[in-house]
Each structure stands twice: as structure tokens, then as C-alpha cells.
Amino acid sequence: MTTATTRHSDRRISPVFVGILAVTAVTGWATWTGFAAQPGVAVFLFVTAAWIVSLCLHEYAHARTALHSGDITVGDKGYLTLNPLKYTHALLSIVLPVIFVIMGGIGLPGGAVFIERGRIRGRWRHSLISAAGPLTNVLFAIVCTAPFWLDALDGVPTDFRFALAFLALLQVTAALLNFLPVPGLDGYGVIEPWLSYKIKRQVEPFAPFGLLFVFALLWLPAVNSAFFDVIDAILKSLGISDLDTYCGQEFYRFWQGTNEFCSVSG
């Protein structure tokens, strides 16, 4: 791969990202120890902060891979600092995904780092840049589910287990949605370099509406049911039960009041 050089300041981790990490750590500790008077508030803050961390890492993976593939401009744009405020569309990359988590418990794909594709040579490099983001979500999901599939839940507080399960649900949905070969999503970016020029020109006008099309489909009961059946199957294969994700979402939506069954289970 091309060796890329950037200034040290272009790669310095942003205080904004450090602050988000701090919130994740503190609220994770509060969830683990039961320190918070209302466990749902701690779960909400922990999952939201951790979700934002994963969104930053998703975009960083795109940018870092692009840097080593030939696009040395990503440093100047601030993409290597992990600062979400540097993204081309902070609303799309951070705010909307958080709103969708609050409203529907689904990991909306973010995605707003501008890669200068003309600087990159080789179809494999283009595909790898697109795949790097959702692969980060896959890695994040593996970390979140590790206590479950390693059968290492002894000593893990139930509230924290529920929070991890819900966070894993978000990562799996984000990875799956991102890998869909739909224009505008990373999955299409993986296959686009291998398509003919004619096909790419025909598809290009639909790219801005790809995500809207996916979510319109998810409103259809049959499609929604099939999608979450796949998500549930993946999570169950990783040792996470329906109870874990259900109660995780119940605790997360603390303003609705936690289901008594989950409170007893916790």
C-alpha cells in the first residue's frame, strides 16, 4: 500500500473523543456497580456514549484505510482525530444514529467522511476502504458479546449484561445494514469498483436515497420481521438471548418505566 505522511497534529486524538470515552467509562462503572439511583439512566448514558464511540471508530476506519491507500487529504480534514464534529455531515453520522437508537433500537449506519477516490488506485483498495467501517462494527459486536460466547458471565452484574446485549444488538444491526449492497451504503461501495461503467452511471442518481429506501422497506411488517429474525439468529449464535436484548432496551428507555420482569431479573 502507499505510504502516507501526515502531520502529528492531524493524528492527535481529539479532546471531544476523549470526553466521550470518559462518559462511557464513568457510566459503564455506574452501571456495573449499581451506583446510579436509577439504573436505567446509567444504562442509557453508557450505551449512548459507547454507540457514539463506535460511530467515531467506524468513520476513523474508513479514513485510516483511505490514508494508507493513497488519500493523504484525510488528515487535513481532521478525520484521523476521531472528532465527530469534523465529519462532512455530523448530523448524519452522529445525531441521526443516536435518535434512531432512542426511537427504534436500531443501529442506523452513519457515514460522512469524504474520501478523494481519484487519489486511490486499485479496485481492491476501494473495496477495502468501504468495508473497513462496517468491519469495525463487527469487531465491536465481538467485543460486546465476548462474555456471552465465552460463557464468562459469572460476576457480571445483570444490568451491565443487559446493557452489553443491547449495545451488541446495535452493532449487529449497523454492520448488517451497512453491508447491504444498496447505493449509498458501504456494501455497495465494496462492490462498486467491480461494476461496469454503464451500471455505475445508471445507479449513481439513486445513491442519495439508498438509506431511505432501506428504512422504507423496514416499515413493511414482513421485511421488518425477517430482518430482526436474522439479527436474533446472529445474537443467539453468540450466546445472547431475547431476554437480554429486550431488557437491555427496556432499561435504555428508562423514561418509559422499566418492565417489572426485567427489574426482578436484574
UniProtKB/TrEMBL annotation:
GO terms for biological process: proteolysis. It is found in: Cell membrane. The chain crosses the membrane at residues 12-32, 41-61, 90-115, 127-150, 162-185, 206-228. Its cofactor is Zn(2+). It comes from the Bacteria. The keyword Transmembrane applies. Keywords: Cell membrane, Hydrolase, Membrane, Metal-binding, Metalloprotease, Protease, Transmembrane, Transmembrane helix, Zinc. GO terms for molecular function: peptidase activity. Its main location: membrane. It is a multi-pass membrane protein. Belongs to the peptidase M50B family. This is Site-2 protease family protein. It comes from Streptomyces cellulosae.
